[in-house]
Give the backbone structure.
Amino acid sequence: MRKTTVVTICVALACLFFAGGIYAKVGDVIKFAGDCPRTKGEMTFSHKKHSEDYAKQYSDLFANGCGECHHDAKGQPLKDLKADSKVDTCISCHKQCGEAPKGKDAPKLDKKQKLAYIAEAYHQNCQGCHKDFNKKYAPKKAPVTCNDCHPKKS
Ligand code: HEC
Ligand code: HEC
Ligand code: HEC
Ligand code: HEC
């Protein structure tokens, strides 16, 4: 038997490397859990690139480290997370499926009520930082349009 087995699995555009039996607790690429009915195709998220590479390269945008995205039940940033920490899923707190209702018949929601919808929570988190990035680091671009992030439903 070889001492080191390197298996490379390519999923869509993303490649995950498992080398020599060292498995990271949090996947390098996260597939969003399918707890809700979908209108868009399934997307993946480069967790490792964000939490390591981008966090280092653009440290001004990641002042709270892991806590730029992970926070506690009071919304306070979890700065000292570890890869093997137990992390609550976003939807365990932002519990409603999909986006907040839109249109003229939709109820008027305040900020907190809107955030109860999982897609609003994600959109604010992901796009908020990407917009800041695009302003500061132009002409570099992080995705902010629907199709940049969401693949067509197959
Ligand atoms: C840019 C946003 C972002 C940053 C920064 C980030 N994470 Fe995450 N992390 C996520 C998202 C999104 C999920 C998926 C949550 C879900 O499924 O509800 C996640 C999930 C996790 C999980 C659970 C994985 C699983 O499969 O159960 C762990 C553990 C984790 N992150 C640790 C960290 C640590 C440690 C850091 C800092 C070194 C970090 N994260 C930085 C967005 C981020
Ligand atoms: C343990 C519960 C909990 C978890 C898990 C959680 N949140 Fe939150 N989140 C909150 C609370 C509480 C607030 C504050 C709400 C308010 O201000 O009314 C909040 C606020 C937010 C905000 C608004 C921040 C701001 O500055 O106004 C965003 C965006 C957000 N969460 C996204 C996420 C994402 C993405 C995840 C998963 C990576 C996540 N949340 C996981 C409870 C949680
Ligand atoms: C705190 C800042 C920050 C947050 C939060 C953030 N991103 Fe990003 N993201 C970046 C930066 C910076 C880049 C691009 C860097 C570059 O072009 O060099 C990027 C690039 C990307 C890209 C294109 C390149 C790649 O890595 O695939 C995708 C897709 C992406 N982000 C998805 C997401 C999603 C989905 C979320 C929310 C779960 C998210 N991002 C949250 C900073 C952030
Ligand atoms: C920065 C990346 C990003 C951009 C840009 C973005 N989204 Fe999302 N969106 C997400 C993430 C992350 C989720 C939650 C995870 C999931 O369900 O795939 C989500 C969830 C959703 C959902 C609920 C899930 C579903 O399939 O029905 C809808 C609807 C949605 N987005 C619509 C949009 C629309 C419309 C736009 C453009 C106006 C947009 N998104 C732009 C990242 C993005």
